[in-house]
Amino acid sequence: MKRMKLVMAGNGMAGVRTLEEVLKLAPDLYDITVFGAEPYANYNRILLSPVLAGEQTIQDIMLNDEDWYREHGITLHLGKKITQIDRVARKVIAEDGTSAEYDRLILATGSQPFILPVPGKELQGVISFRDIHDVDAMIAAAQQHKHAVVIGGGLLGLEAANGLKQRGMEVSVVHLSEYLMDRQLDPTASHLLRQSLEARGLKFLLGKQTSELLGRDGRVTAVRFKDGEETPADLVVMAVGIRPNTELAEAAGIHVNRGIVVNDTMQTFDPRIYAVGECVSHRGIAYGLVAPLFEMAKVCANHLAQMGIGRYQGSVVSTKLKVTGIDLFSAGNFMGGAGTEEIVLSDPMGGVYKKLVLQDNKIVGGVLYGDTVDGAWYFQLLREGRNIADIRDHLMFGQSHLGDTGHLGQNKAAAMSDEMEVCGCNGICKGVIVKAIKEKGLFTVDDVRKHTKASSSCGSCTGLVEQILAFTLGGDYSAQPKTKSLCGCTDHTHEEVRQAIREHKLLSIPDVMKFLEWRTPNGCATCRPALNYYLLSTWPHEAQDDPQSRFINERAHANIQKDGTYSVVPRMWGGMTTPSELKRIAIVAEKYHIPAVKVTGGQRIDLLGVKKEDLPNVWAELDMPSGHAYGKAMRTVKTCVGSEWCRFGTQDSTQMGIDLEKAFYKMWAPHKVKLAVSGCPRNCAEAAIKDVGVIGVDSGWELYVAGNGGIKTEVAQFMAKVKTAEEVLEYSGAFLQIYREEAWYLERTVHWVARVGMDYVKQRVDDAEGRKTAYERLQFALQAEKDPWLERAKEGVAKHEFEVLTV
Amino acid sequence: MQDWIKVVKLEDIPRAGARVVRTPGGDIAVFRTDEDEVFALNDRCPHKGGPLSQGIVAGRKVTCPLHGWNIQLDSGAAVAPDEGCAANHAVKVEAGVVYLAASAFVPVPQPAKIACAGH
Ligand code: SRM
Ligand SMILES: Cc1cc2nc3c(=O)[nH]c(=O)nc-3n(C[C@H](O)[C@H](O)[C@H](O)COP(=O)(O)OP(=O)(O)OC[C@H]3O[C@@H](n4cnc5c(N)ncnc54)[C@H](O)[C@@H]3O)c2cc1C
Ligand code: SF4
Ligand code: FES
């Protein structure tokens, strides 16, 4: 097939990100040609500030060098500005006459710094702060001259001022308003910022309007203000704002209104022509930070790749200042106003100020100064529109105060030294992560995970990694979109995959992959286990299990250990055992030289260090059923002694636990499922932190769900109160079946319920008819399941799995 | 001249799966891909020695069961950003039977880290 021609004007951050995404999705669809007005390949514009400050070099901030374009077969015209688009002949023409035809065109022309229309603006030594050229000019000026004046006390102006100061110049910042960064900070935070910048030697001329630039021999010498005052200047940096660069589009007759106007699929009024980045006006907004631009890039690429499912719906942005040593965060409506409330924590001596603006129990904006570690968290709450009523009294003290820290007190991201360990599972220190982010140009937690493995295992340090990312990248950090694709092999989400399997009655993994146009021939270790589960849980008795798509534990029905041996955890119903079971365990452990025998936290016994080839015999001789300690499956039902023995017991919790375990034994689930039954509210079986917790009371049983005792402890929520043991089974069974049918793979009940809401769960379970049929569907599904140990030990199933070949 | 030793029938290795061959030099994992290609690697992950034979095989890669490194079946190289290599051995299939190069059975002292050819 002949490839289509894709041409791009502008090779900045948004444009090239779009190409990267296109290459990922449809590597062979287009012949790509790129024009860039600057003589450089693709670099990280954001990091010009650290380059100016002498903290990084131009080489450090290249994102894609010329080799990258070559490797991907992209024709690159550097130093060539496109001046004309011939929309009839569908070609673009550059200043020097170079032309290229297109089937699709991307405009990614960025923006231009706004230059104050004052006399003297064309003098030598008057520049803006936008590209490598400007930074070179500033560095050269700093070597020869003394006085710098930065006009504009916003983000960019302050970063320029800081850089020039670091380079040894005397720097004054002129700002029209009385407050620095008045578009991002309230007066209090602004004042604190000014104090710390003054302490670094910067001077401020606030409330001043520039009227003229004075010069001698064509070079600037001073700045004059409206009030008649003057200040000496050998270098003037104008940082008073940017304007979408729309010249080219306008000349081609494309609709422009303070930015190239695009729809939600990033198309301009000429549907062959797309636009992304700062040059764009989307729903009336032009953005000037990269996070939203990267979201645009994703959507644009999605359409160019002819997937046609992405929509860009606008972004909420947050800001950080990249001046080393100053922590500042701002987002949303930080000023407040009618109908809003504020929570303020102010410690000016300690240099800390925090303000959150609330409206209808939601965060709508905030400013953090001095301590910004919770910025990412507040911003997430803001974007999710999370109701904070229940955490309001701790909110100001940050996420750590809610017990959300995992293991390491991760909200110290900024303060951590490079050697401190972030990811305990993989032994990754902060320095390694920061280095990878900088050197490899990483922007998301997923990228960091891929490159460093940090947070790829237990995940408890994800929050910390996220904070390190946010801290290292500044405002450049774009949080993960909530609707993530299942894995790199597809763009479909878990939800879309589940739906397709259900609605189109797909019965095998190849069917699903074909129907949903998987990008890889047979998936990967992430999607195959998920698909296998979705098929089995949606079409019990009909879909075929694929053992090769299961993680080794579920394929071998035992837990793999670090030395390649396995552990065996037989079922002990409700934590009850017998002398004869204990004798068999003892005999087996001795006969097979099993090095360790341990009582687990799940009220049963673990035999650790069994050789794989011994597994079938060990199972056969134990003659006890599989405990599924290895599976995304029903694990244990913990019980207490209950009314049979305990002086406080109100119900026979032990028998209830045994009944539950027998009823749900062999049940596969999106993740592991743990139950517990306590005989009274003293709760000795710890039912309050289980996926399903049952607590006996005088008048019957209380049912709690979606508790978790793992990485992040969550107390289970009340679901229902019932009278009889039959009802306990039916309610629990219905809850578990709905979870099995609707949760995403690897989502524990606690996460699923957090996503769909406890109200939804209650409504489903309270409906008598729905509850009954859900419970029946579970029983139907379980009929198909056999005891995997019995099959393998006695019936010779999957023999090859356990035999070693010798010759 | 390469000497070959017969190890197993192709049909006795599950598709997208592996079998373990025990040799004096250690275990060797013999993989069969979804498309019936066969590869042999030392059954030791370059990361922390995990048994690669127990991983999930997708395309021409296996995902180590211990910490999820992806290893290229044809070369034994870890997929970037990870670095390292599991030694690979010559294998062939003839008339439905898998043969492993005799050299695979000779115990050779393994250096702590092996560099992959071409890496
Ligand atoms: C054996 C045992 C520790 C012990 O010696 O007591 C254990 C051992 C493991 N746990 Fe656990 N957990 C054990 C009870 C628990 C408990 C306590 C309980 O069940 O009452 C918890 C907290 C309760 C909970 O899950 O809500 C627990 C929370 C975890 C978690 C965190 C789960 C979470 O959602 O946050 C993981 C990681 C995971 O599943 O991804 C985990 C993962 C593991 C793994 C499977 C790690 C792995 O992937 O290899 C360990 C397997 C060891 C092996 O091969 O046998 N284990 N683990 C316990 C087995 C209980 C049983 O009889 O089946
Ligand atoms: C100093 C500085 C610090 C910043 N700090 C941050 C920060 O901390 N966080 C944050 O989120 N954002 C920051 N930004 C903003 C961020 O860099 C921009 O939002 C982003 O680079 C815009 O990407 P873009 O692709 O739209 O435009 P650009 O990256 O500007 O790319 C546009 C490119 O197109 C070229 N071009 C224009 N017209 C043509 C034409 N007709 N033909 C060919 N080529 C053309 C231009 O020369 C330019 O190279 C900062 C910006 C600067 C300058
Ligand atoms: S048994 Fe559980 S707590 Fe202990 S090391 Fe393993 S995963 Fe961690
Ligand atoms: S041992 Fe293979 S990934 Fe760690």
Structure description:
- The complex is a heterodimer of chains A (807) and B (119).
- By secondary structure, chain A is an alpha/beta fold.
- Chain A has 25 helices and 38 strands.
- In chain A, β30 and β31 form a beta hairpin.
- In chain A, α11 packs across α13 (462-473), α14 packs parallel to α16 and α20 (653-664) runs parallel beside α21.
- The radius of gyration of chain A is 32 Å and the shape is elongated.
- Chain B has 119 residues and is mainly beta.
- The interface between A and B is large, with 36 and 38 residues.
- Bound molecules: siroheme, flavin-adenine dinucleotide (FAD), iron/sulfur cluster and FE2/S2 (inorganic) cluster.
- FE2/S2 (inorganic) cluster binds at residues 45, 47-50, 64, 66-69 of chain B.
- Flavin-adenine dinucleotide is lined by residues 9-10, 12-15, 35-38, 45-46, 48-49, 81-82, 108-110, 129-130, 156, 159, 245, 248, 277-278, 288-291, 293, 322, 474-476 of chain A.
Protein chains sharing the most extensive interface: A-B, 36 and 38 residues
Structural class estimated from helices and strands of chain B = mainly beta
Mean pLDDT of chain A: 91
Mean pLDDT of chain B: 89
What quaternary form is this? Answer: heterodimer
Note the main sheet of chain A: 5 strands, parallel
- Helical stretch count of chain A? 25
Sum up the overall morphology of chain A in one term. Answer: elongated
How far is it from the N-terminal to the C-terminal residue of chain A, by CA? 51 Å
> Structural class of chain A, please?
alpha/beta
Strand order of the largest sheet of chain A: 5-2-1-9-21
Ligand kinds? siroheme, flavin-adenine dinucleotide, iron/sulfur cluster, FE2/S2 (inorganic) cluster
Strand order of the largest sheet of chain B: 2-3-4-8
Give me the Rg of chain A, rounded: 32 Å
